[in-house]
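hey
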């Protein structure tokens, strides 16, 4: 280390000249740098030296305790690829999109090439770099990109690790440092008061592509990206007899659970992405949380291959949430999982969802599972219930039970696919309203953000938005929705406290009714009335689709028959399709390939359908050739 550092330390009053001379003598004997020698000899505290070096580099030193508690939004992590972060040992902290400034913490903040690379990829004009020990930055990368909540607890310590880290920062000092002054913006930490800190910079700016889900994809929409993955993974799974189509099934069911948990639409998409990738690079053995909990050898294997999909797709720059989900797929709610031993809500929500759904599919579809046998639906649901709070998140199990009990699909069929959209940020209030609407027989799509509500709105028939989302924001959302002619007539009900000015603005934006802060049951009654009025005025129905796992075909037919429904039902089985057209609960047309009439109806009933699609508004474009009551069709499907 340059002797000039000793002069600067003396001038700053941190050490005496005699101490510097002693350290220089030690340096000649050991070859260690001056700063290392001062710390090793007890002549200067490590933290004091680190803060001094950071000051000399015109930045700030970030200790491990502070970085461990930092809250970094996932969309900010997505703007800086993990491979770039690992290559340059840096971590993004905050972004100011209005001023186009990104703040990072790095082991070498003086590295101008690194700063230019980060500015280019993150699409900002300036990068401010704080400084931290290399080992601390590595721990930050593990925690925030890979959801490893044990990263800081397992930081290396001791003289050798300290010397290596100090040497890195000393090298930064010797290379003349950075001329950029770090901004006076402290990290946003959990537990600090808002008065004691500068508000974090906004990070709402979209990244490359419409959703920013995968950097560098240009204008490719995230739905196209997910569909491409589905096709590719489906081809890979064709050679696995028992697992054919498994990832697509997992993606669909996990997405439904995520939506029922009111996750933002972007997080739902991340769950689907992780589902398609979860088995890649792991070999022929299908590993699940249920399987690894039962078989210690499988658990050891899971620990080895947990990150295989993440490493395979590093060059693609997957969203941080996808990486975290894949990394924690075998973590258990009670902490007994692998590879980190994370527990409870420290496990990424996507991982908790996939762990439960993947275990369900493995138990009911894969005879080679760790139990060596297939479970019936009832046995699998019983197992999940037993393991709720142990292996699985109880909320996820509850939603999975709702999905596979058939109750959700029954409601959708009975209501001709119509849904109520509830946007409420308060979890307790949202759950209460959803339950009240459910007791009225309505199907609800709930979400916690306006962004997700805007995504879901086109597929729903009545919108119930909370004023807690912001009166101005709800009004702007209403204007955006009303600009689509297809949505112009959809009722918008707003709940909560709204002053006169806010009420006027909402009315001008297209609000139908202001309900006020009523009780959930009162709100539900008014929603039912508004929805019924919309149906009476000819509002279109919605297509309903599902699988035999969720609702057996005979139950589908029973519901449609008892409700005297009209429309078209398509049943798929082993690559074949059959269609039934009915009017007021009576089958009037049947087709299976080129076969029509009674013969087609018989083929359809004999086939073991695995999927169905019901279109209540489908019209018969051919002459009717049957007149069979659906009740008779249902009896034909009953076991002898």
């Amino acid at each position: 280390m340059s002797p000039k550092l000793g002069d600067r330390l003396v001038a700053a009053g941190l050490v005496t000249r005699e101490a510097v001379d002693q350290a220089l003598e030690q340096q000649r004997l050991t070859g260690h740098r001056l700063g290392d020698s001062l710390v090793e000899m007890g002549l200067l505290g490590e933290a004091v030296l680190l803060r001094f070096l950071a000051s000399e580099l015109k930045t700030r030193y970030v200790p491990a305790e502070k970085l461990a508690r930092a809250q970094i939004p996932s969309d900010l992590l997505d703007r800086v690829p993990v491979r770039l972060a690992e290559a340059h040992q840096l971590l993004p902290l905050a972004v100011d999109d209005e001023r186009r400034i990104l703040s990072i913490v790095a082991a070498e903040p003086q590295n101008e090439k690194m700063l230019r690379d980060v500015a280019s990829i993150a699409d900002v004009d300036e990068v401010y770099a704080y400084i931290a020990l290399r080992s601390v930055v590595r721990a930050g990368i593990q925690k925030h990109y890979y959801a490893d909540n044990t990263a800081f607890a397992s930081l290396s310590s001791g003289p050798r690790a300290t010397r290596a880290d100090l040497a890195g920062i000393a090298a930064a000092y010797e290379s003349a440092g950075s001329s950029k002054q770090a901004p006076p913006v402290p990290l946003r930490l959990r537990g600090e008061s808002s008065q004691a800190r500068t508000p974090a910079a906004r990070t709402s700016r979209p990244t490359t592509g419409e959703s920013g889900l995968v950097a560098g994809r240009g204008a490719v929409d995230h739905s196209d990206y997910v569909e491409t993955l589905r096709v590719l993974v489906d081809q890979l799974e064709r050679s696995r007899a028992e697992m054919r189509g498994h990832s697509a099934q997992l993606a669909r069911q996990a997405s439904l659970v995520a939506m029922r948990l009111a996750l933002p639409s972007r997080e739902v998409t991340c769950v689907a992405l992780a589902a398609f990738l979860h088995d890649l690079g792991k070999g022929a053995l299908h590993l699940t949380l249920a399987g690894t909990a039962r078989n210690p050898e499988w658990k050891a294997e899971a620990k080895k291959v947990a990150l295989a999909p993440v490493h395979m797709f590093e060059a693609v720059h997957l969203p941080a949430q996808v990486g975290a989900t894949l990394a924690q797929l075998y973590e258990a709610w009670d902490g007994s999982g692998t590879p980190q031993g994370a527990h409870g809500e420290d496990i990424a929500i996507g991982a908790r969802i996939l762990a439960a759904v993947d275990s369900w599919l493995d138990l009911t579809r894969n005879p080679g599972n760790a139990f060596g046998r297939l479970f019936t639906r009832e046995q699998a649901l019983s197992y999940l219930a037993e393991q709720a709070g142990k292996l699985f998140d109880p909320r996820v199990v509850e939603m999975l039970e709702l999905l596979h009990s058939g109750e959700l699909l029954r409601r959708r069929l009975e209501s001709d696919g119509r849904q109520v959209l509830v946007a409420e940020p308060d979890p307790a209030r949202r759950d209460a309203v959803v339950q009240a609407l459910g007791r009225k027989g309505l199907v609800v799509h709930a979400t916690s953000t306006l962004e997700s509500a805007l995504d879901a709105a086109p597929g729903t028939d009545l919108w119930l938005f909370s004023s807690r989302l912001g009166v101005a924001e709800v009004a702007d959302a209403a204007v955006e929705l009303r600009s689509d002619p297809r949505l112009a007539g959809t009722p918008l009900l707003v709940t909560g406290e709204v002053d006169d000015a806010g009420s006027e603005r909402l009315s001008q934006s297209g609000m139908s009714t202001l309900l006020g802060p009523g009780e959930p049951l009162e709100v539900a009654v008014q929603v039912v009335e508004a929805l019924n009025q919309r149906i009476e005025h000819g509002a279109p129905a919605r297509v309903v689709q599902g699988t035999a796992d969720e609702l057996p075909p005979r139950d589908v037919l029973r519901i449609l028959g008892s409700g005297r429904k009209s429309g078209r039902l398509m049943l798929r089985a082993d690559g074949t399709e059959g269609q039934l057209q009915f009017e007021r609960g009576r089958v009037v047309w049947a087709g299976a390939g080129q076969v029509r009439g009674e013969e087609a109806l018989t083929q359809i009933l004999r086939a073991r359908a695995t999927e169905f699609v019901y279109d209540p508004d489908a019209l018969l474009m051919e002459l009717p050739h049957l007149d069979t009551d659906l009740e008779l069709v249902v009896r034909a499907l009953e076991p002898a």
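The chain has a mean pLDDT of 82. The CA atoms of residues 488 and 624 lie 36 Å apart.
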